[in-house]
Automatic annotation (TrEMBL):
One GO term (biological process): glutathione metabolic process
Keyword tRNA-binding attached: no
Entry annotated with the keyword Transferase: yes
Protein EC: 2.5.1.18
Keywords per UniProt: Transferase
InterPro entries for this protein: Glutathione-S-Trfase_C-like (IPR010987), Glutathione-S-Trfase_C_sf (IPR036282), Glutathione_S-Trfase (IPR040079), Glutathione_S-Trfase_N (IPR004045), GST_C_Tau (IPR045074), Omega/Tau-like (IPR045073), Thioredoxin-like_sf (IPR036249)
Family, as annotated: Belongs to the GST superfamily. Tau family.
Species of provenance: Setaria italica
Catalytic activity: RX + glutathione = an S-substituted glutathione + a halide anion + H(+)
Name the record gives this protein: glutathione transferase
Superkingdom field: Eukaryota
SUPFAM superfamilies: GST C-terminal domain-like, Thioredoxin-like
Enzyme class: transferase
């Protein structure tokens, strides 16, 4: 179970493709001054403060990737947080933080919605325009975190997207944590039970939202897909660690197909951590 604990407790290891500028901790003060200067000059710059092992940071990177937006990436040492992070998120002192024109935006769900609204004319929309579908998407995103953490343009679609996003946050993350950090085998077994139950509910959500298409967002990736997509590498790692499938093709065929489709997208492959690297690091920590 150590490899699961390793990921969920977010040990500091560096990984991400070189196509973004990765800035060292000791450059954060200079970066802060540069960001302030850019904001004063009216430059449209994006900087993401993150940690490689965070599914919430991965969500922000996925959204930026699918939108086709360029940005600077700053890897944070969570044991020695930079002045830039502490200044940008003084309430929670945590990643991710997106800095746009010198102004910080905190919390992954807020960042996703901010990106979608501010850059509405760039790349695909993440949230449907219909208020009801919009709300549903947010609900299911929250559900995923708690139990485990071009789309429609009508208000119903936007409501639905937020509904399911909330479900992900509310249900999925908690079951993953119980599976990995339970004090007894009984607690860990209960975590597995809750994870499978959450997957079955998400299977029905995917059926409802996708209407026979590959993604929660329909033919293209949407808000709920990105919220759930933040967990993709860790779903694979937990599968390998436990010898069981979180999204089993026999029990949840739509989710199993979704996992394969999402992982095959170039925009996802560009930012999702490599599974073998995660496995190697978990073995190293165990030794």
């Amino acid at each position: 179970m150590l490899c699961i604990h390793l990921v969920l407790t977010l040990y500091t290891v560096h990984f991400f493709p070189p196509r973004h500028h990765e800035l060292n901790q000791n450059r954060s003060l200079n970066l802060s001054r540069d960001l302030e200067a850019s904001a004063m000059a009216g430059e449209d710059e994006l900087t993401l403060l993150g940690f490689w092992g965070s599914p919430f940071v991965l969500r922000a990177r996925l959204a930026l990737s699918f939108k086709g937006l360029s940005y600077q990436y700053v890897e944070e040492d969570l044991k020695n947080k930079s002045e830039l992070l502490l200044k940008s998120n003084p309430v929670h002192n945590k990643v991710p933080v997106l800095i746009h024109d010198g102004k910080p935006v905190c919390e992954s769900s807020v960042i996703l919605q901010y990106i979608d609204e501010v850059f509405a004319g760039t790349g695909p929309s993440l949230l449907p325009a219909d208020p009801y579908e919009h709300a549903i998407a947010r609900f299911w995103a929250a559900y995923i975190d708690d139990k485990y953490v071009p789309p429609p343009v009508d208000p119903y679609g936007r409501a639905m997207a937020r509904f399911w996003a909330a479900y992900i946050d509310d249900k999925l993350l908690s079951s993953f944590m119980m599976m990995s950090m339970g004090n007894t085998e009984e607690e860990r077994a209960e975590g597995r039970k809750q994870a499978f139950a959450a997957a079955e509910i998400l299977e029905e959500a995917l059926k409802e939202c996708s209407k026979g298409r590959p993604f929660f967002g329909g033919d293209s990736v949407g808000y709920v897909d990105i919220v759930l997509g933040g967990f993709v590498p860790w779903v694979h790692l937990i599968d390998r660690s436990t010898g069981s499938k979180q999204f089993d093709a026999g029990k949840t065929p739509l989710l199993a197909a979704w996992l394969e489709h999402f992982g095959s997208l170039d925009a996802a492959k560009a930012v999702v951590p490599d599974l073998e690297r995660l496995v190697a690091i978990s073995k190293m920590r165990k030794a």
